[in-house]
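Illustration 12: Efflux RND transporter periplasmic adaptor subunit.
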Amino acid sequence: MHKKTNISVFVLFVSLTFILFAGLTVAGCTAKETATSNKEETNAVPVQVEKARKGILDAKAGIAGKFEPYEKVAIAPKVNGKIVEISVSLGQKVNKGDVLFTLDQVDLQNAVKQAEAQLQVAQANLKKAEIGSSQGLDQAKNNLAQSESAVAQAKQAYNDAKINLERTKKLFEAGAVPSVELEQKETAFKNAEIALKNAEIAYENAKDSVHYAGQKTDIEVAKASVAQAKVNLDNAREQLANATVRAPISGIVASVNGAPGQMSSMQSSVITIVKLDPIVVKGYLSENEVTSIKTGAAVKVEVPTVGKTIDAKVTAISPVMDQQLKAYPFEIEIPNADGKWKADMVVNVIFQGTNGQLENSIIVSRKAVFEEEGKKYVYKIENNKAVKVEVKTGEETSEEIVILEGIKENDTIVVKGQTLLTDGAEVTIQKQA
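Figure caption equivalent — predicted structure in token form:
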């Protein structure tokens, strides 16, 4: 009985050992197959994809712009002074020429009176110079006439003395007169010659006097003084007029930075006026966008704060890039007679091309396209593998780009995960968040 029991225990032990071995073998095979499967899944690159579509590309430029005044003028006085009165208030409409504010005028009025007095003095000096010049010229002419008469008399005396000397010489040679008489005639001739020369010198001096008197030098100086006094008076009157500051344009008072009793200077603005009709949208175009957008192009201006969209046209595009933003400024003018649109409102500008819309084309997300060695590529999915395809691109926006060559409508294109891909790599497609 004891022997049978031992045999039964042995048989049971062998059976259990066989079952355990078989189980371990099966478990080992299953684990190996699972690891192999996980390894294959790990080698596949996860990507996100989109379908290439055919449609019309809306070109969004500058992403955002903003409303700005058509014209903005910060007004400072042209003279320093104390503000006496401010005639306008914030938000008030004003017309060109309306009084904005006035400065204290006492000192300026005194400056005008002083300039007027200086002009009167200068005019009196001119009159005096004109009278003196006239009298001086008459006297000089009288002196010239007298000198001319003296020269004539001296010439006559000289000729008479010369004739007498020649006659006396002949008589002396004939022994008819003594030498004393000859000497007297020679002396008389020399005296007549000296008198003639003196008379001629006096005549030339008289002529010079008439010439200088005719130049009226004193009168010219006095006239210059009068002209300068008039300029000073005009300046003083202009400064007085500048104490009343008027609006240089029609518009709306955007800011008031002064108050009565406050000192103002030419370096600080007191009133700012803006013109908001039309209002101007200002934004920037990228280098790619500026080549396809022209002045006059149709646009839609979205105003997110009020949920409105405005149809408009581009009125100006700068041909010069803003070096800080690396983009080209553009402007759009929008009528604003009712004042609905305010300066600094943020807007979104949608360009529709020069003909209202861009060409019907194959369009993909801009992030699908990448560049290598000057060429552009996308990854297209075929049979769960990524195929690297060279493409030729066209118009583009900040979000989408036109594909001219390389792919066709409904091709599946990788838009996320390209950096991990190589040509022919296995992929797993993930849903976009």
